[in-house]
Every structure is written in structure tokens, then in C-alpha cells.
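Thread: "does anyone have the structure for this chain?"

Original post by V.I.:
We have the sequence but no experimental structure in hand. Need at least a predicted one for the grant figures.
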Amino acid sequence: MGSTPDFGRRDLIKRSAALGLVAVPSISTLTACASGGDDDGNKVDKGKKSDKNPLAVNESAALDVVIFDGGFGQKYAKDAEAEYAKAYPKTDGKIKHSATQKIQTVLQPRFNGGTPPDLIDNSGAEQMDFGTLVAKNQLTDLTPLLDAPSVDDPSKKVRDTLRPGVVEMGQFDGKPVWILYYAYTVYGVWYSKTNLEKLDAEYPETWDDMLKLCEKAKKKGVAGWTYPGKFPYYMPFSLYPFIAKIGGPETLIAIDNLEPNAWKHPAVKAAFEAYYELYKKGYILKGSPGLTHIESQTAWNQGKALFIPNGSWVENEAKKTTPDNFQMAVSAPSSLDSSDEMPFGTIWASGGEPFIVPKAAKNPEGGMELLRIMLGEKSTKNFVKQVSSLTSLNGGTDGLSLPPGLASAQEALKKAGTNVVNPRLQDWYVALQKQQIGVGALGEMMAGRMTPAEAIKKIQKFADDTAKDDAVKKYKHA
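Reply from O.Q.:
Generated one for you, C-alpha cells below.
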């Protein structure tokens, strides 16, 4: 891992501004950001299109890459850049690689001046707001990349090698693809098989069994759950698929679409009350409301709590404190009861680590070509081995010995089949998801400072206010 631990979490999740960091620019900032425009005069000449160069990359042009300095580190990107230099030898020594945790602070002046990089891993606390970038026409349409032949099999387009839903995630209102999510994240309830075995237990497939196991653990001095109370927008990683499981996928679609009273659906109420019961019965690790993601993961690794809501980046991010015999695993949420609309195994999985090519980039073809290389099997396997995470390439793990958490994530995906949900709230409305729903309501409820009914009422108001705010670009499921 190549970053400060507190910013090592993954992307797809994009750190909040809750502690004073800038997650969403102000309106004036966004206007300034949009002023860069698309100056074709700054662009390098295109190269000659061929079977080996399907995107017509200028084979001697410089390439400027900026990667979020997070839990995945830098090596995977540098290794892909080395492959780029092999494919286009005249670019050797001309590839500029930069890493930062402060994406917006570093890159906004470059957007303002019309000199953005050619490829950006737009993640972290200071992730630039996608809705605004799209609305202000600041991004390159990645359709040429998706329609280009894959590195491994020229008979297949890149789009045909990707996992289900990845292409759609990069779209807004069904329009061109602006974002390519490189990692593929499995969200859910993470646990240690070893620690469950100590209690002679397996993962509880029903909520009643979950409560019974938490009670059993409590008698042994172990908490049932912990979570990063300073970043409570982790709770949805297991809570949102729980809501979908209870009420059906249309419940999350209505929430994403900012429909009136979407948060007042009975499935939301049932899910919130179930989680609140964990607090009421004392099944949450004391002090959790004050923990960061790293601190909560460390407590979990130390066996102080059985379960934690998280994403599949956790295996790499927490590896320094994970015991050798931990047997990390992930499961879909437990069933509430037999009336649930979706089966046990329903899980949230989606693209993570969002890459963009600015419209004003000097070498957009080079940026897309580097992504094409990254989506090849060689780069994918390199990524998997380095950081214990899947990529958006459908496959890429053949012949690899997967660590326990990643193997479990693969198994969870297989078990889910078509019962995979992908809430878009965190992509479309970053401030609503993180600062308002997460910090302003879920964190308060899980700390016992707000009842489920109060949390739902507050969240519904947040959603309604966002829906009425003309300054916020709105998106809907197709």
C-alpha cells in the first residue's frame, strides 16, 4: 500500500468532507472548474490507426497520469505505464506519473487553466464531483475505448470483456460513457471465519440468528459489530442491499431517483429498525462512533467485534493488522424474514476506482490506451496479486492463488448470480450520500442519538431538498 493509512480506503467510495476536507466544490468553484474548455489547439496530433494502435495514439507523445494515492498504491499503475512504453517505445521517459490524495486541490488549477492530465484516477476525499464534470462537459467520451479491440483478444471489444454494470456506471442519463471504473468492489458484511469458529458458529443467514450470535458473542466479551463512526457512510455497504433484499430492487431505484417518500418505504423502516436493535441490545463495540475506518478495521482484526460493513478493498488496506489465521470473508446481508422480496445472497457489487480522461487533455488517446492496457489480462492479474482486489475485467484471476477475502468475494458474487444491486446515490449525489445521509443521520442513529423514525424523516428531507435544488444536476435510472 502506498499511502497514508487514513486515506487508504477505496474509491468507489470517495472520502467525505465531514472532517473539513473538500468533497464537493462550491458553485463558484465548479463554475471556475468548468471554464477550462476544450482547446483542440493544445492537443497532440493523432497517430496512425492500425491493428496494434486501434485508438490512433501518437506514438511519441508524452503522457500525463495522476493516480489517487490510496490503498491500492501506485505500482499497478506504474507497471501498466511500463507496458505502454513497451508498446510505444518512443514514449519511454515521457510518461509523467503523479500521485496525490488531494485530487481536487492539485488538479483544479490545471482544469481552470485548460491543462489537465491525460488520465486521472478520480478518487479519495477530494474527488472531483462527477455530476458537475459531466454537466459542464469537462470529460472525454470513452466510447472509442470501449469499442476498441481488447488487448488479449482482438475479436472482442473492450466493452464485451467487462463485468456486468461497469459500462452503465460510467453513464449519466444513458448518455456517453464518461467514467471507467477500474476496480470491482464487493460490499457486504465482513467477518473472520476463524473467530466465528471459536463461537462454534457460521455466518447467520437470518436476522434472528444474527441477534442470537451477537448475544452469544457478548457473553464472551466480544462485540457483534463495529463500524467507522467517523465515516458512517460505510453503513450503507451492508444496509442498502439489506433494504433491497427486504423490499426489492425498486426500493433502491426510487431512492436513487429522489422520488417523493422513497425513504418512507416499509423496507427502509424495517432495515433501520433491525440495525438500531444492534445498538439497543449493546451489540456494537463501545467507542465505535469515534473510530476511523482504520481504527474500526484494526479492532475487528483484533477480534474485538465479529462483523464490519466494508468493501473488498479491506483485505489489502487492513493486511498489516490482520492475523495470519484470520480467514477473512464477506457475506451478503442476513435475511430479515421469509417475506423478503429477494433471496439470501443478494449483494451490492459494482465498479470502483473511477478513471476519467479530461476533455481538454493534450493526449486523450494516450489516456484511453493506457486504460485499454490496464484492462488486459496481464495488468489485471498484476493488480489482483498486488492489492487483493478484482478489476472490472470479467475474469483475470485464472491460475492465481487468491487470498481468503478475495476468494470469498468471488464466491459471494457467484452465489448472488443475478441478485446484485448497485445503488447510484453515492455516484450521483456525493454530498447527500456522505455528509447528509451518512454523517447527518445514519451515524446519529447508530450512536443512539436518533431513532430510526427520526433518521428516516431527516434523510427524506435531505433527499427532498436535493431534489428541489436547481443547482444540483439530477440523474435517473434508465
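V.I.: this helps a lot. The CA atoms of residues 188 and 215 lie 21 Å apart.
O.Q.: and The first helix runs from residue 27 to 33.
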